[in-house]
């Protein structure tokens, strides 16, 4: 039986963690993810979990301690945001290459400068090549559900990769919404025990982790890691299928909202997708065939599946909530456009960078994006491919 | 049981030959001696910072280490060890490691990975009180990348980023006194040693550090033939000169109590340490005599300070 509750995204993640009761939690505070370890510290203080909760002196050490703990044979987690994630950068890559399934909760927040504590995906997108699987949630429910699936995906023998559960800083991390929680026992049964094959503290045989890999060996290790990320696609869907069977909520690589007959569509992520869906509904009421694709799995990137769902559209807007400074579009646009490259007939595509540093995204703004797409369909002219939205004019 | 080198050398080797460390390098001697200090029935997990030792002892698909070993990055050996130690506690508590089985968590890094880039991680792990022992093999510079100065490089040593030249007499600053900084963390056991005699001093300190509960630290002056520029066969003579000139005093601090564990009968002038090393060659050139005097003055001052603490 599900339990009806009202929780913020951070408390939802902390609750999922409590139910899973990981062996090691290495924490370092940063806004807006700080609440996660704070809630957790109270669970430790109240004897609700028996986790080794270590308050380390930096995010770099938080991830490093997770690497040590996972390699030693136990489940390790942490949480961070923004500069904290950037500070982990080096060791995120190590987690991926050592194939250690650390689960990292990220309350996504803009990167400095100027310093800003609000939401965009500058932090998590900057780590898109780190070797972490990345799951994004639209609201607290999806974030909670993603967390319940995280360990099973990451620890699967065909995957063994670290995983980020991403929520939108403040928008999701701090907003209190209704949520359906699952029973502790049901969660424990779903997630299961961590049973690594080899680990440092295994009694039968020692293990050496983290070699110097010269040119004669490095590439094989990286290719094996790339295959693991490809394998993750199947495992993500398998775990989602079992999740649906167990708890009744359905998840895929993305949510295709009113896409069956859509002529104009928006590709978007996280909480902004809710706004986009309202705009699509309003346009549908006016006879416009508008749809929304909300990306849930950004790593591995579901390119083929995304191309399949977008191929019949006439015009598509990719909504990038981070600026990649490539001077030709944001990261989500580059990935989506790349996914479409081998289609015989491609929709016209534009990229809109929006919502940086917590800049609001309204239903009217979403409708204006659809209107641009309608105009592109009418005129056959794509116009400027890469634009920004919601900023003041002038410099 | 009294220390007996012959018996020690009859122990099963836990750091094997075939590694790629240079001839005349101290790091291999440190590792063998460190592993001899782990009781034969006990196991260890070694957490190694990036450096010469890491790239030379665990080059895929070969490892010189008999025990479990992990390397993750340069600056985080102590944080990695914190995670391993936490996992050990969990597995013990859950009964997944038998009550009577002991696993000792060891971290090891060079001076770059300990005094400098790994200093924050070390300080954090010491403060948190993890049960582990950190061994620093201090070879006085970033040797893996080619002898760049570190905060452990002594004053007047020529390093590739503080070279001697017409306008330079080598590094301008004195060596950071990391051992004292670790003592200030309140660690239950802190020691300084090097490779000398029958390795009794090293062995006893390493064993005591490993078998003292809490975060313990052993700082080992470890010559590097490439960076110090001495004849490879002279490594032990260099170490002996370091202790007899008091450049590297040999002592331990047990729960805050200082104890000198080696006092030279005749304190030798610092030239005895500096002369055989190419990194100090410029100090012996006419006009640079003052560098030797200044180095001697500093060593004397530090030695007196230490003697005062040991009294």
Structure characterization notes:
The complex is a heterodimer of chains A (395) and B (311). By secondary structure, chain A is of the alpha/beta class. Chain A folds into two domains: 3-247, Rossmann fold, CATH 3.40.50.970; 254-388, Rossmann fold, CATH 3.40.50.920. Chain A contains twelve helices and 16 strands. Chain B has 311 residues and is of the alpha/beta class. Chain B has one domain: Rossmann fold (3-Layer(aba) Sandwich). Helix content of chain B is 36%, strand content 17%. Chain B has an eight-stranded mixed beta sheet with strand order 2-1-3-4-8-7-9-10, sandwiched between helices. In chain B, strand 5 and strand 6 form a beta hairpin. Classes of the chains: A alpha/beta (395), B alpha/beta (311). Chains A and B meet through strand 3, helix 3, helix 4 and strand 9 of A and strand 1, strand 2, helix 4 and helix 6 of B. Strand 9 of chain A pairs parallel with strand 2 (68-71) of chain B, so a sheet runs across the interface.
